[in-house]
Amino acid sequence: MINLLSTGNTMLNQFIAELRDSEIQKDRLRFRFNLERIGAIFAYEIGKTLEYEQKEVVTPLGIALAPVLTTYPVLATILRAGLPFHQGMLSVFDKSDNSFISAYRKHHKDGSFSINIEYASVTDTQDKVVILSDTMLASGQSMVLAYKELLTHGKPRHTHLAAVVASAEGADTLKKHFSMEDTTLWLGVVDDEMTAQSYIVPGLGDAGDLAFGNKS
Question: In this structure, is residue 194 part of a structural domain?
Answer without folding.
Answer: yes
